[in-house]
Design goal:
The chain is mainly beta and 198 residues long. It has one domain (15-160). The chain has 3 helices and 8 strands, in the order E-E-E-E-E-E-H-E-E-H-H. The strands form 2 sheets. Strands 2, 3, 4, 5, 6 and 7 form a 6-stranded mixed beta sheet that branches. The protein has a two-stranded antiparallel sheet with strand order 1-8. The chain is elongated. The termini are far apart.
Protein backbone atom coordinates (compact mmCIF):
# COMPACT_ATOMS: atom_id res chain seq x y z
CA UNK A 1 0.00 0.00 0.00
CA UNK A 2 1.60 3.32 -1.06
CA UNK A 3 2.29 5.93 1.61
CA UNK A 4 0.02 8.96 1.76
CA UNK A 5 1.53 12.00 0.03
CA UNK A 6 3.16 14.56 2.32
CA UNK A 7 1.13 17.79 2.39
CA UNK A 8 2.84 20.76 0.74
CA UNK A 9 3.58 23.91 2.76
CA UNK A 10 0.70 26.33 2.28
CA UNK A 11 -1.51 23.77 0.54
CA UNK A 12 -5.26 23.98 1.05
CA UNK A 13 -6.66 21.61 3.66
CA UNK A 14 -8.42 18.45 2.55
CA UNK A 15 -10.71 18.64 5.62
CA UNK A 16 -13.31 20.40 3.48
CA UNK A 17 -13.54 17.32 1.22
CA UNK A 18 -13.89 14.73 3.99
CA UNK A 19 -17.42 13.41 4.50
CA UNK A 20 -18.95 13.22 7.98
CA UNK A 21 -17.71 14.59 11.26
CA UNK A 22 -17.99 18.06 12.72
CA UNK A 23 -17.38 20.58 9.90
CA UNK A 24 -16.02 23.11 12.40
CA UNK A 25 -13.21 20.84 13.61
CA UNK A 26 -9.80 20.94 11.97
CA UNK A 27 -7.71 17.76 11.77
CA UNK A 28 -4.16 18.79 12.68
CA UNK A 29 -2.44 15.59 11.60
CA UNK A 30 -1.77 17.07 8.15
CA UNK A 31 -0.22 20.19 9.69
CA UNK A 32 2.18 18.45 12.06
CA UNK A 33 3.94 19.97 15.04
CA UNK A 34 7.08 21.26 13.33
CA UNK A 35 7.24 25.00 14.04
CA UNK A 36 6.76 26.99 10.86
CA UNK A 37 4.50 24.44 9.12
CA UNK A 38 1.52 26.20 7.52
CA UNK A 39 -1.71 25.26 5.82
CA UNK A 40 -4.45 27.29 4.22
CA UNK A 41 -7.92 26.22 5.36
CA UNK A 42 -10.72 27.35 3.03
CA UNK A 43 -14.18 26.10 3.84
CA UNK A 44 -17.87 27.05 3.87
CA UNK A 45 -19.75 25.59 6.84
CA UNK A 46 -23.31 25.97 8.16
CA UNK A 47 -23.83 28.25 11.16
CA UNK A 48 -25.04 26.56 14.34
CA UNK A 49 -28.05 27.96 16.18
CA UNK A 50 -27.80 30.69 18.77
CA UNK A 51 -25.24 32.97 17.14
CA UNK A 52 -26.72 36.37 17.86
CA UNK A 53 -28.09 38.97 20.21
CA UNK A 54 -31.70 39.99 20.78
CA UNK A 55 -32.34 41.88 17.53
CA UNK A 56 -29.76 40.51 15.08
CA UNK A 57 -27.83 37.32 14.49
CA UNK A 58 -26.64 34.66 12.10
CA UNK A 59 -29.50 32.50 10.77
CA UNK A 60 -29.07 28.84 11.69
CA UNK A 61 -27.63 26.94 8.73
CA UNK A 62 -26.43 30.10 6.94
CA UNK A 63 -23.16 29.63 5.03
CA UNK A 64 -20.13 30.87 6.95
CA UNK A 65 -17.06 31.29 4.76
CA UNK A 66 -13.71 30.67 6.41
CA UNK A 67 -10.48 31.85 4.79
CA UNK A 68 -7.88 30.83 7.34
CA UNK A 69 -4.21 30.02 7.71
CA UNK A 70 -3.03 27.51 10.31
CA UNK A 71 0.55 27.88 11.47
CA UNK A 72 2.33 25.48 13.79
CA UNK A 73 4.27 27.34 16.49
CA UNK A 74 6.16 26.16 19.58
CA UNK A 75 3.18 26.49 21.93
CA UNK A 76 0.39 25.34 19.61
CA UNK A 77 -1.36 26.39 16.41
CA UNK A 78 -1.88 30.01 15.38
CA UNK A 79 -5.12 30.51 13.45
CA UNK A 80 -5.49 33.72 11.46
CA UNK A 81 -7.52 34.95 8.52
CA UNK A 82 -10.97 36.22 7.61
CA UNK A 83 -14.52 35.09 8.27
CA UNK A 84 -17.45 36.09 6.08
CA UNK A 85 -20.87 35.60 7.66
CA UNK A 86 -24.43 36.78 6.82
CA UNK A 87 -26.57 38.34 9.55
CA UNK A 88 -30.27 39.19 9.66
CA UNK A 89 -32.44 40.98 12.16
CA UNK A 90 -34.70 43.97 12.80
CA UNK A 91 -34.02 47.68 12.89
CA UNK A 92 -34.20 48.82 16.51
CA UNK A 93 -35.88 52.09 15.44
CA UNK A 94 -38.43 51.18 12.75
CA UNK A 95 -38.50 47.34 13.02
CA UNK A 96 -37.82 46.89 9.29
CA UNK A 97 -35.76 43.82 8.33
CA UNK A 98 -31.98 44.25 8.40
CA UNK A 99 -29.56 42.14 6.34
CA UNK A 100 -25.80 42.44 6.13
CA UNK A 101 -22.63 40.43 5.59
CA UNK A 102 -19.82 40.76 8.11
CA UNK A 103 -16.18 40.46 7.08
CA UNK A 104 -14.21 39.83 10.24
CA UNK A 105 -10.52 39.27 10.92
CA UNK A 106 -9.61 36.53 13.37
CA UNK A 107 -6.35 35.58 15.05
CA UNK A 108 -6.07 33.12 17.91
CA UNK A 109 -3.50 30.78 19.41
CA UNK A 110 -4.72 27.27 20.24
CA UNK A 111 -2.38 25.84 22.86
CA UNK A 112 -1.05 22.28 22.93
CA UNK A 113 -1.87 20.22 26.01
CA UNK A 114 1.05 20.47 28.40
CA UNK A 115 2.54 23.55 26.75
CA UNK A 116 3.78 26.48 28.84
CA UNK A 117 0.94 28.63 27.51
CA UNK A 118 -1.65 26.03 28.51
CA UNK A 119 -0.09 25.49 31.93
CA UNK A 120 0.20 29.18 32.82
CA UNK A 121 -3.20 30.35 31.53
CA UNK A 122 -6.61 30.28 33.15
CA UNK A 123 -9.28 28.01 31.66
CA UNK A 124 -10.98 30.84 29.76
CA UNK A 125 -7.81 32.74 28.77
CA UNK A 126 -6.59 30.44 26.03
CA UNK A 127 -8.16 28.05 23.55
CA UNK A 128 -6.87 24.51 23.70
CA UNK A 129 -6.22 21.79 21.16
CA UNK A 130 -8.28 18.66 21.78
CA UNK A 131 -6.05 15.74 20.82
CA UNK A 132 -5.41 16.07 17.08
CA UNK A 133 -8.23 18.55 16.47
CA UNK A 134 -9.11 22.14 17.16
CA UNK A 135 -12.66 23.48 17.16
CA UNK A 136 -13.15 26.73 15.24
CA UNK A 137 -16.82 27.23 16.19
CA UNK A 138 -16.25 28.96 19.58
CA UNK A 139 -13.66 31.32 18.07
CA UNK A 140 -15.91 32.36 15.18
CA UNK A 141 -19.02 32.56 17.38
CA UNK A 142 -17.29 34.84 19.90
CA UNK A 143 -15.88 37.05 17.15
CA UNK A 144 -19.28 37.41 15.45
CA UNK A 145 -21.40 37.94 18.58
CA UNK A 146 -19.03 40.53 20.04
CA UNK A 147 -19.20 42.46 16.75
CA UNK A 148 -23.01 42.55 16.49
CA UNK A 149 -24.70 45.82 17.46
CA UNK A 150 -27.18 45.65 20.34
CA UNK A 151 -29.39 48.18 18.51
CA UNK A 152 -29.02 47.57 14.76
CA UNK A 153 -30.46 50.13 12.33
CA UNK A 154 -31.56 49.78 8.71
CA UNK A 155 -29.76 53.05 7.89
CA UNK A 156 -27.49 55.17 10.11
CA UNK A 157 -30.05 58.02 10.13
CA UNK A 158 -33.26 56.00 10.47
CA UNK A 159 -35.87 58.21 12.18
CA UNK A 160 -37.91 55.35 13.63
CA UNK A 161 -41.69 55.19 13.97
CA UNK A 162 -44.24 57.93 14.58
CA UNK A 163 -45.30 57.64 18.21
CA UNK A 164 -48.91 58.51 17.32
CA UNK A 165 -49.69 56.40 14.25
CA UNK A 166 -46.85 53.87 14.29
CA UNK A 167 -45.83 54.47 10.68
CA UNK A 168 -42.22 54.74 9.58
CA UNK A 169 -41.26 58.42 9.79
CA UNK A 170 -38.90 58.26 6.80
CA UNK A 171 -41.84 57.14 4.62
CA UNK A 172 -44.14 59.98 5.74
CA UNK A 173 -44.33 63.50 4.26
CA UNK A 174 -42.22 66.20 5.89
CA UNK A 175 -45.30 67.99 7.24
CA UNK A 176 -46.73 64.86 8.89
CA UNK A 177 -48.21 65.68 12.29
CA UNK A 178 -51.01 64.79 14.67
CA UNK A 179 -53.22 67.26 16.51
CA UNK A 180 -52.35 67.13 20.18
CA UNK A 181 -55.26 67.79 22.52
CA UNK A 182 -54.72 68.38 26.21
CA UNK A 183 -56.72 65.57 27.90
CA UNK A 184 -58.01 68.07 30.47
CA UNK A 185 -59.96 69.84 27.73
CA UNK A 186 -61.16 66.70 25.93
CA UNK A 187 -64.68 66.88 27.46
CA UNK A 188 -65.19 70.49 26.38
CA UNK A 189 -63.83 69.73 22.91
CA UNK A 190 -66.43 66.98 22.47
CA UNK A 191 -69.22 69.31 23.64
CA UNK A 192 -68.31 72.08 21.17
CA UNK A 193 -67.50 69.85 18.20
CA UNK A 194 -70.23 70.37 15.55
CA UNK A 195 -72.41 67.33 15.10
CA UNK A 196 -72.24 65.61 11.70
CA UNK A 197 -76.04 65.32 11.73
CA UNK A 198 -76.49 69.12 11.56
Amino acid sequence: MPAAPTPRRGAASTDARRPGGDPWKVDLRELGRRAGSMRDWEKTVPAPEGWGVEMIGVPEGAPVELHLRLESVMEGVLVSGEVEVPVTGQCARCLDPVEDTLHLDVQELYAYEGSTTEATSEEDEVRRIDGEHLDLAPLVRDTVVLTLPLSPTCTPDCSGLCVDCGQRIDDLPADHSHEQLDPRWAGLADRFTPSKEN
